[in-house]
Write a sequence for this structure.
């Protein structure tokens, strides 16, 4: 049934949701309004640790338009989610008790007729506290003590290998707290009617959101429907339920009126997760020829007081490079901060900053080209479990990337690549990887009598092109033009689909869509042979075929056939329908016994102006081995965006907390620095190798949402070293770091 | 945001009359003029500015003009938007340092709204001033202390600081106005007066809540820039990212090179001072000298001699020196 000729797979198809977004007709969660809608504004803790000793709401309650003020003393009961069933990173429901664990924690919520009234009243709520000194200290060494570390992966004897290693690196790397800052703020519009909730949410996972909300609200899951048609990006921050959703839903139930709660930008830094700070020690040893003999990766990540949400920094370490001896150990350090959560490439992205930085340092110590070092340590299989890789082309990523970048012209001497204007070029590179695999999904499909078809799935498009990819896949399978394909996503009344995380959606979809189309086609052919007025009446199903939207006798050409809408009309049927589902890769015999990952290589050029300590990323070449690409335009856009995010991670992003009070200091768009257009590398060259991974599906897509960010930061710091001689092991690279070699030679500069 | 009254006025007299009711024109003012609102509204949302009465001056005629005066000076109305001023032909031709400074500031959207008088009164970006969660801020609440000292102060001032306040003056435009010897024209209850920009900004000292020379009722109507002989000019701004960020250090320079000697040298820096920082020590070190790295370095050393850094912002001393040296090098070669 696959039509090889008519496919749009791998081509740069424009997004089908584009016109809705450019004309302002796409409805985001907070765009939903209903008669009688109330507005909720939370009151946030102004201490980071301690207890609430009193909440005085009298003045606020007397204000115009105020309907109700909830806090731990009067709020309707909320439950915790069932562990390992629904995922909620911050498991403690708001107002569970009088304790405050982090700055900005919700301590009350005001519900009023208008947003202005709610805001004004929220400011008038007087909360008194018994404050204690919060623990926000930055050093995570407490987690790196021997007795605090948990073994995540092990082979051989790292201690022996390191002590006898010929060439060694032992270094500690630090990544700061990074805060997701999607344009669209987290929001919830909750409606409650007749015991049932319909919740318009900013979520990357409507299915988990439904389960979690049902458990925390204490109602059967069928009483909750989640709708999310468009998302203004999430970056992982919108994967799991956050407390504002519960506040809105709980208030809507209590007041029997719709409630809207849109969080503010400051809350983005306190209440809805962040990528936690990490401290990672890497010990590498190699022979003088550059063969790795050991990798040891110990790390701790900061987490909140109540939760154990860690950053899995060792995600890639066990299999990325070949080494007989390896040990990865993890830990967490609890601090008075809001609960961290997944951010694009969780674990692997900060982990690869450490691992690939250490590889660069090792290459320098070996006096070896860093590309060559990696080529020399290419594994033949996944050495962590002995399984073959389903499809690994890391060597081609490295060699093609080097060729496209012009790496052969690199002079490895620090500061040697001077331009006529006095600026110095720095060239650095790093390897990248990110996990792959299908998640279980289901889908339904319908041929309809108006000539359209509809594919439905309770997954969601978080701005990455999922609507379009669905349409392309249906087009690929049926040959029906994309203009006639309706894609229905973002509603839990559809068949359950995957969450939009881990770069898994695109790779998960194809088998289920194919099965659903096949089932509907089978039904359509049955209708064709059974219909009283059907032109194929009396034929046998296996004599018929379907392609390009037409049913025809196999003996004839497809052009001779009859359109599916005519068949349906002849039987007076609205539609022919089918359902499909597919299992997770772990249950798929085709994927069993294989190690599934995406790979990539990042090559970065920085321009370094030592006269004013100015450094900018000027050029990036990225080669991605991400399986079969479905939509070249959306995929390129994903990776380009990831590279820009990598520039932010490398040079700009850091959430800073006041060490005395525990409040974020730069909790706004002006002070939390992300790249502006002017910071984007003028040249970004993205290449996909496009090898289909048949362990994923017949179509061979793996997913490319996160791999583009992996390896960018260590490639930048490698380039910074090459240009300036400064090795930055703690992100982001700051002007202070870059001033070191200048002031070293001119001590007088530092004197007032 | 708290409730406030909004009055739209059509004349400077009406504006002054209403504003005369405020007990102070400094922190805690109960009446504020609103023009672009890019700074004031921001602080009202944060409850840092809590005026009970806003006087909208946008409809006062003739305040949005840039006009050449008979004496050769340039008159810039209080309501001239930053983006218009940056592109005014007279500014581009004779005061390019002002155009460069304006275009290095904020974002295109903000520059389209922000005005000349508003920028003169731009408040600091100190995070502790902005956030009521901190009780200590002498600028916000006199006598309460300074949370920035001992807190996070990477982008705080190193010049003109006191034990009471180390907040950086955030403007780019005002740094350029310092080297152009701008004169600020004010209409007050007692009539019109002029204030040279060098006397406009106050050092924090023991009164960081008093930032400038304005009294209750005072309305800035326009700014004049004296006529200049032909000069070389530059504004160089250093910061972490390439756009939309306040300066870590910036330098505004106006000078002539005559017969191989530097003349009419004017130097000011932004991002390092508690007010836009004119540097007479540097000017003195440069005036009459032949341009060269040694001379530039000596000027930079002289300019930063009185710097008083704290832990996180000591790097601003070398950075400011590099900034000035690069600006001097570039402008003399221009």
């Amino acid at each position: 049934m696959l039509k090889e000729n008519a496919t749009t797979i791998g081509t740069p198809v424009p997004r089908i949701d584009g016109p809705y977004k450019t004309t302002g007709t796409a409805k985001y969660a907070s765009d939903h309004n209903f008669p009688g809608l109330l507005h909720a504004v939370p009151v946030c803790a102004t201490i980071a640790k301690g207890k609430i000793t009193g909440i005085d709401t009298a003045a606020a309650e007397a204000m115009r338009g105020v309907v109700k003020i909830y806090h731990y003393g009067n709020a309707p009961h909320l439950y915790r989610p069932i562990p390992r069933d629904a995922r909620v990173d911050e498991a403690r429901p708001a107002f569970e008790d009088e304790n405050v664990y982090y700055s900005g924690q919700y301590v009350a919520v005001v519900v009023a007729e208008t947003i202005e009234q709610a805001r004004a009243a929220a400011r008038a709520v007087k909360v008194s506290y018994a404050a204690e000194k919060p623990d926000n200290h930055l050093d995570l060494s407490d987690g790196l003590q021997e007795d605090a570390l948990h073994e995540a992966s092990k082979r051989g004897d790292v201690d022996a290998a390191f002590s006898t290693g010929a060439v060694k690196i032992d270094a500690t790397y630090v990544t700061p707290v990074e805060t997701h800052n999607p344009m669209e703020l987290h929001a919830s519009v909750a409606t409650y009617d007749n015991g049932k909730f319909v919740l318009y949410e900013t979520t990357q996972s409507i299915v988990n959101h439904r389960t979690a909300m049902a458990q925390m609200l204490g109602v059967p899951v069928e009483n909750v429907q989640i709708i999310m048609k468009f998302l203004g990006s999430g970056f992982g921050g919108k994967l799991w339920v956050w407390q504002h959703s519960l506040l809105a839903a709980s208030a809507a139930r209590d007041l029997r009126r719709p409630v809207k709660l849109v969080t503010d930008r400051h809350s983005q830094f306190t209440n809805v997760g962040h990528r936690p700070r990490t401290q990672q020690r890497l010990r590498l040893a190699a022979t003088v020829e550059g063969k790795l003999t050991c990798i040891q990766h110990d790390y701790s990540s900061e987490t909140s007081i109540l939760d154990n949400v860690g950053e899995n920094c060792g995600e890639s370490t066990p299999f990325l490079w070949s080494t007989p001896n390896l040990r990865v150990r993890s830990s967490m350090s609890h601090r008075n901060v809001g609960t961290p959560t997944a951010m694009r490439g969780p674990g692997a992205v900060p982990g690869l900053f450490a691992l690939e930085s250490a590889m660069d340092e090792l290459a320098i110590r070996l006096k070896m080209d860093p590309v060559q070092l990696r080529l020399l340590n290419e594994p033949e299989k996944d050495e962590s479990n002995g399984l073959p890789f389903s499809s690994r082309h890391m060597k081609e990523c490295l060699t093609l990337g080097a060729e496209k970048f012009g790496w052969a012209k690199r002079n490895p001497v620090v500061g040697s690549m001077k331009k006529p204007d006095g600026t110095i070029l720095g060239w650095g590179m790093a390897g990248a990887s990110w996990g792959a695999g299908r998640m279980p999904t289901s889908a339904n499909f319908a041929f309809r009598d108006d000539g359209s078809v509809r594919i439905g799935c309770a997954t969601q498009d978080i701005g990455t092109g999922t609507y379009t990819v669905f349409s392309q896949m249906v087009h690929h399978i049926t040959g029906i033009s994309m203009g006639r394909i309706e894609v229905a996503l973002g509603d839990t009344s559809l068949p359950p689909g995957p969450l939009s995380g881990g770069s898994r959606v695109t790779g998960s979809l194809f088998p289920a869509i194919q099965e659903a189309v096949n089932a509907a086609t089978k039904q359509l052919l049955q209708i064709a042979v059974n219909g009283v007025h059907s032109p194929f009446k009396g034929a046998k199903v296996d004599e018929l075929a379907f392609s390009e939207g037409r049913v025809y006798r196999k003996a004839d050409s497809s052009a001779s056939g009859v359109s599916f809408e005519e068949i349906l009309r002849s039987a007076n049927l609205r539609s022919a329908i089918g359902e499909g589902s597919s299992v997770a890769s772990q249950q798929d015999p085709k994927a069993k016994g294989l190690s599934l990952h995406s790979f990539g290589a990042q090559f970065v050029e920085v321009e370094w102006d030592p006269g004013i300590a100015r450094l900018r990323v000027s050029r990036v070449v990225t080669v991605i081995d991400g399986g079969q690409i479905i939509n070249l335009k959306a995929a390129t856009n994903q990776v380009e965006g990831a590279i820009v995010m990598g520039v932010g991670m490398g040079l700009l992003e850091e959430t800073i907390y006041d060490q005395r009070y525990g409040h974020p200091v730069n909790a706004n768009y002006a002070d939390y620095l992300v790249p502006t257009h002017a910071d984007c590398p003028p040249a970004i060259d993205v290449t996909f190798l496009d090898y289909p991974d048949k362990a994923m599906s017949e179509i061979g897509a793996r997913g490319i949402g996160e791999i583009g960010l992996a390896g960018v930061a260590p490639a930048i710091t490698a380039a910074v070293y090459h240009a300036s001689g400064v090795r930055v092991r703690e992100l982001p690279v700051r002007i202070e770091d870059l001033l070191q070699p200048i002031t070293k030679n001119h001590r007088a500069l530092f004197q007032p | 945001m708290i409730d406030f009254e909004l009055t739209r006025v059509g004349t400077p007299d009406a504006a002054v009359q209403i504003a005369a009711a405020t007990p102070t024109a400094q922190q805690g003012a109960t009446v504020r003029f609103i023009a672009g609102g890019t700074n004031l509204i921001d602080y009202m949302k944060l409850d840092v500015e809590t005026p009970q009465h806003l006087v909208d001056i946008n409809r006062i005629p003739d305040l949005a003009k840039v006009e050449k005066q008979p004496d050769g000076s340039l008159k810039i109305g209080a309501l001239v938007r930053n983006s218009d001023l940056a592109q005014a032909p007279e500014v581009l031709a004779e005061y390019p340092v002002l155009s460069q400074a304006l275009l290095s500031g904020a974002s295109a959207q903000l520059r389209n709204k922000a005005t000349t008088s508003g920028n003169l009164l731009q408040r600091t970006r100190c995070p502790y001033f902005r956030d009521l969660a901190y009780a200590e801020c002498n600028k916000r609440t006199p006598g309460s202390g300074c949370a920035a000292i001992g807190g996070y102060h990477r982008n705080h001032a190193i010049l003109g600081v006191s034990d009471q306040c180390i907040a950086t003056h955030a403007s780019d435009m005002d740094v350029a106005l310092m080297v152009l010897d701008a004169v600020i024209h004010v209409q007050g209850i007692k009539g019109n007066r002029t204030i040279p920009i060098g006397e406009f900004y106050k050092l924090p000292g023991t009164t960081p809540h008093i930032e400038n020379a304005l009294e209750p009722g005072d309305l800035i109507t326009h700014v004049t820039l004296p006529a200049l002989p032909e000069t070389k000019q530059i504004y160089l701004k250093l910061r972490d990212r390439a756009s939309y960020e306040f300066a870590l250090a910036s330098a505004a320079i106006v000078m002539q090179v005559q017969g191989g000697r530097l003349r009419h040298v004017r130097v000011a820096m932004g991002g390092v001072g508690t007010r836009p920082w004119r540097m007479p020590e540097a000017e003195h070190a440069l005036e009459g000298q032949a341009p060269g790295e040694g001379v530039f370095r000596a000027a930079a050393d002289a300019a930063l001699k009185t710097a008083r850094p704290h832990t996180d912002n000591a790097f601003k001393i070398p950075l400011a020196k590099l900034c000035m040296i690069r600006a001097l090098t570039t402008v003399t070669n221009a």
User: Anything to note?
Assistant: The domain at 5-58 of chain B is CATH 3.30.43 (Uridine Diphospho-n-acetylenolpyruvylglucosamine Reductase; domain 2). The CA atoms of residues 11 and 295 of chain B lie 51 Å apart. The longest strand of chain B covers residues 249-258.
